[in-house]
Amino acid sequence: KEIRMNVTEKYGIKMKYNQFGDIVTENFEDPDEKIAIDLFEKSVLDLKLKNKNVYSMIELGSNFSYYSMLFKKILEPDESLSILLEPYDKYMKTGKEHFEINNLEGVFLKERIYNPIPWCNITFDCPSTTIDDLLERYGIEELDVLHSDIDKSEEYALIGAKNSLENKKIDTIFIMTHPDSIEESYSTHENPTKLHIKCKTILLDYGYNLVYDHPECDLAGDGMLVFKK
Questions:
Q1: Which residues, 6 or more positions from 104, have their beta carbon under 8 angstroms from its beta carbon?
Q2: Residues 168, 171, 172: CA angle, nearest 5 degrees
Q3: Which side of the chain, N or C, has fewer Cβ within a 10 Å radius?
Q4: DSSP state of 9
Q5: What does the alpha-carbon distance between residue 117 and residue 115 come to, in Å, rounded to a whole number?
Q6: What's this model's pTM, rounded to 2 decimal places?
Q7: What span, in angstroms and rounded, lies between the C-alpha atoms of 215 and 26?
Q8: What is the Rg, in whole angstroms, of the alpha carbon atoms belonging to the chain?
Q9: pLDDT tens sequence across 62-74
């Protein structure tokens, strides 16, 4: 039986916190996201074959910044641009601290993707933005990776990426989808969540290719979609 190496340790990522802000061991890797982490690693390694001078990634809902750190560690820090959106001060702090202890640089933005329905009645005192705006703001002609984990705002993130998706400006897209109710948290391939279906339909309609479809909410309570242009 093949033994899988801990990706955190493999790339020398120093960890201090988990996604809830709790103290963890230095080589921590979330066991609930093993599938997501492995797919992300493979996708970024595939991108590395392009031999670009600069790679770029946007992480929506960056939390403790794990995927952005992995992105930069694989592609080398001086050859990658990481833009991290996080509306929560607590998680922004842990993400910044992780970048600091790993000697990485990133653009941290206290901004959010607009959603007219507050999640868990939470309102934010930060500005909203769109993916199209971010690409224009930072002069990104081709975004290599979009990673989104933003608690039911995924559909609105894609709606705000109309120009980017129409013109295939995004290479690889990771979308973590969330259930709308307790009942939906027991979704399966035969009965995926409504949000999962909506996000999948939007990206298929734009002509993106489905790489991975995991609607069961066992990835830290989420489903996952991976698309490539």
A1: 69, 72, 73, 77, 82
A2: 130
A3: N
A4: H
A5: 5
A6: 0.91
A7: 31
A8: 17
A9: 999 999 999 999 9
